[in-house]
Amino acid sequence: MRVLGVDPGLTRCGVGVVDGRPGSPARLVAVGVIRTPADDEIGARLVAIERGLEKWLDETAPDAVAVERVFAQHNVRTVMGTAQSAAVAILCASRRGLPVALHTPSEVKAAVTGSGTADKKQVGTMVTRILRLDAMPKPADAADALALAICHVWRGGVQNRLAGAVATARAGGLAPGRPGGPPGGGAGGREQGDHQPGRSRSPR
Questions:
Q1: Which of 17, 42, 172, 192 is most buried per CB count within 10 Å?
Q2: Which residues pair with 102 in a beta bridge?
Q3: pLDDT at 9 (0 to 100)
């Protein structure tokens, strides 16, 4: 499956796309950052983020989108901006019918490094090793976006298959578990393996 990871933020919104499947090495497709000027009005910044994400979705055609779950912070202004950016990412994906998953920072850290308390440098180092990159992605927002994508590839495969089975059953007018309905078998997603592993680029 191909996953677009989004590390939400108003000034810097990290984006990273990874190909992979549970139990197999992940491959880098693209990584970058969507930036907006801090002195612009909030509406204009959110529109810029939306346009940037739409371009990434067009260019990379992911099967799913993973967004960092916003958690409470002492700086209310910061968390509000992060939440607004996350909402734009969820909207863009949902408008296309793509499944969206929210992962907490601790879930992502644990999936990538084995520790839910790892710092950003440790996360970046492990992302570099997992994707077999020559250098750590910068800024940290880009590395975090890749970590989100990796986390979802490794942890979200089963959930996506179950969700696909439920959606297929409902489309046919039958719910899993009901008499005459499917028992909830898996539904496979499309695979895209035409991209070169370890290739870093941004959509043009």
A1: 17
A2: 67
A3: 95
With vertex at residue 11, the alpha carbon angle to CA 10 and CA 17, rounded to the nearest 5 degrees, is 80
Neighbouring residues of 133: CB distance < 8 A, sequence distance ≥ 6: 28, 127, 198, 200
Mean pLDDT by 10 residues, the chain (204 residues): 97 97 92 97 98 98 96 77 96 98 95 94 97 96 97 74 56 48 37 39 48
- Give the C-alpha separation, 186 to 166, whole Å: 9
Is residue 68 part of the annotated active site? The answer reads: yes
Return the SS3 of 66.
strand
63 is catalytic: no
Catalytic residue among 19, 68, 134, 144: 68
Beta-carbon contacts of 191 under 8 Å, excluding residues fewer than 6 positions away, are 1
List the one residue out of 201, 194, 198 whose CA is nearest residue 26. 198
